[in-house]
Amino acid sequence: MSNVTKEFIVGIPKAELHVHLEGTLEPELKLELAKKNGIDIGQKTIEEVRQSYEFDSLTSFLGVYYPAMEVLQKEEDFYLLAMDYLKKAKDNNVKYAELFFDPQAHTSRGVPFADVINGYYRAAKDGVALGVESHLIMCFLRDMSQESAIETYEQMLPYGDKIIGIGLDSDERKNPPKKFADVFARAKEDGFNITMHCDIDQENSIEHIRQALLEIGVQRIDHGTNILEDAKLVEYAKENGIGFTCCPVSNSFVTEDMKGKEILELLHKGLKVTVNSDDPAYFQSYISDDMYVLATKYNLEKKDIIQLAKNSFEIAWIPAEKKNEYIDQIDAYVENL
Ligand SMILES: [Zn+2]
After folding, report:
1. What does pLDDT average to over the chain?
2. How far is the CA of 168 from the centre of ligand 1 (A)?
3. Cystine design at 300: which of 24, 107, 139, 295 (Cβ 3.0–4.6 Å)?
4. Is 126 among the domain residues?
5. Do the domain assignments include residue 65?
6. pTM of the model
């Protein structure tokens, strides 16, 4: 039996490093924005929207996920979406967050890049007053071309100071990391932090992880527990302090289980594993819920939760002094219990 309570998990200071802003669109806000922007989404009640959030694979999830974004039209809409998440983050004692966003999902339907980035960035700044510091990570959609990624990268450059890193997400099938080698090489050269999704149990998962680590040179992998298939890569990730942003509840929606055994194995091997919510509105699970369900199903001990929380700051893209400040907050929390 796990000795960890939900209260302990909610209270511990933590960072969230794998959450897609577009995946935080709760039914309430979706309906509100649809009404405001005069968009017929085919659903009239929260219950109807909730029922549309149903899927059993990554592909079926993405089939619901991208059309839902139609309600996001104006700068203000992006602001409201991010603020909605930041309030939830505060409730979960998330002190720091790195927020993924997918500009191509918006620019491809005619929304100006500036409205997306300015809305999200304004929310990130206002979040500080709530006690949540945050930065933005711009992701490319991997089912689109590298040319489109480069075009998006160049649209972003005038706003480069509003972004902390570059990521890669969406449908991994037949879209390996090396498809985007050029644009990631450029991002690295320009000084951006880089990460990539390596989703669970994909075709060629381990080869994609190898490419991400050894050819692209990512600092983190989003998901990535399939690394356990190759002991040498595990060793490499450990030696190089590679971060893993795991999302157990999300895993349980798109594969047969939450990969708790793998997450714990990596954690106990000393890899920088973290637990995150991914798309919390769709999976109805925010970061503390993810940590709690993992803790109860896999008998985590308090020290595991403390380690997960410390890892989340250690692999965050913030200066060392800042990391130490947050880690001191964890120690103070544990001591004062
Ligand atoms: Zn994700």
Report:
1. 96
2. 9
3. 295
4. yes
5. yes
6. 0.97
Strand 220-223 relative to strand 133-141, pairing: unpaired
Specify the CATH number for the domain of residue 71: 3.20.20.140
Which residue range(s) make up the domain with 95? 6-336
- The predicted-structure confidence for 261-278, as pLDDT tens digits, reads as follows 999 999 999 999 999 999
State which residues have CB under 5 angstroms from ligand 1, the bound ion: 278
Report how far residue 264's alpha carbon sits from residue 247's, in angstroms, rounded to the nearest whole number: 12
Q: For the chain, what percent of residues have pLDDT higher than 90?
A: 91
H or E stretch including 196? strand 193-198
C-alpha distances out from residue 95 to 6, 71, 264, 300, Å = 18, 29, 24, 22
Ligand 1 center to 199 CA (angstroms): 8
Angstrom distance (rounded) from CA 327 to CA 223 = 23
Instruction: Indicate the annotated binding residues for Zn(2+).
Output: 18, 20, 197, 278
Output b/e per residue, 11-31; b: 16+ Cβ within 10 A.
bbbbbbbbbbbbbbbbbebbb
Q: How many domains would you assign to the chain?
A: 1
Q: Is residue 1 part of a domain?
A: no
